[in-house]
Amino acid sequence: MEAEALKVATFHSHYGAIMFKKRIGGDASLKPVPRSLSSSCGTAVFFTSPFNAESTDENTEAVYIKDGDGWRVIWKR
Amino acid sequence: MRFAEKGKLAATGIIIGAAAVVLTLLGNPGNMGFCIACFLRDTAGALHLHTTPIVEYVRPEIIGIILGSFVLSLISGDFRPRGGSSPVLRFIIGFIVMIGALVFLGCPLRMVIRLGGGDLNALVGLVGFIAGIGCGCIFLNNGFTLGKAEKQTNVEGVALPFITVLLFVLFLAVPSLFLFSESGPGSMHAPVAVALLAGLIVGAAAERTRLCMAGGIRDIFIVRDFTLISGFVAIFIAVLIGNLIGGSFHLGFSDQPVSHSMHIWNFLGMFAVGLGSVLLGGCPLRQLILAGEGSSDSAMAVLGMIVGAAFAHNFSLASSANTGPGINGKVAVVAGIVILLAIASIVTIRERRKA
Questions:
Q1: Alpha-carbon distances, residue B141 vs B26, B75, B146 (angstroms)
Q2: What's the pTM?
Q3: Complex ipTM, two decimals?
Q4: Across the interface, do B223 and A18 touch by the CB < 8 Å criterion?
């Protein structure tokens, strides 16, 4: 179930998002952070592959999963 | 989702464009309904930080933008005091962004407003702005970051909005403290209440939508996303329509309000603004909005811009309308771009080594 659900990871830097996307591969894509998650205008990574905390690093801020119309946090540094 | 966001950004753009046209009709200088760089410069003059007699006025629009963002972010829960992300570098970058803007004669917001008035010099500035943003995106894609912002106290987050309130109270209660232009752009202004209200509305709307003149172009370069740019386009269309209806649209390079036609310096001035804005994470308007949300990093960038404006006039770096920059301004812009490139290169190399 979770493996197919849409997830979004947020970062402290744009480069952090690029490196995370490279690490998880698959269908991951770079997009602006959803307004409902943050008032900042950084880069987020959207993906549907299973989330593994080992994919994160010091630049990773949080990971959310789609929950109805909103997002639910599943990992936070 | 994206469509809804684009709609809100377009609505915000229309509000800003309409406000710019109305403020100009009510007294602000031509094609200067809103200009963050010019208004910070005027405020610096009013505070005696420089003494150029034609650009001194406490601009209520700036006060309104910061407070509009502050109040709405408090209500919506977006007010989160953060800071400690290379504050001195942010001050320096803000300083250089201001020098670039005052050589061009306008921030990115005024650049779009000038375009909507038919000023083709602003088109040259736009090319420089896009080039600067493109250059900044190369650094972003290769690891540039000013570092993680950490949680700060509420006192730290409220400091700049509080100073803004204090400034406005003193402006109303003891105006003799300040300098006010008797001629030139500083003497031209809309009524205080209207200017403040326009600033409050624009600040709140820009906070909600994250509107950013640099961010729209940056997002196209780095994530191929066209959401933020819709605000930029809407401002242009709203100002263009307003000017066409009001009969103040004049297409061309010459005889444009508060502008010059030295193309290389219009290009380089806005190149510095574009590059600096990407390094800061937002244009001058966005820095005011983020400062209102409690970012002491953006507050440092705003202070850098104010000090930059004072230096620009005390050391003859700012351009003169019609004649453009003098030798000091030309040297300052080139030196500013070199410093920005050096900061970006050193930080990027350091981050790549860490990775």
A1: 44, 35, 14
A2: 0.96
A3: 0.92
A4: no
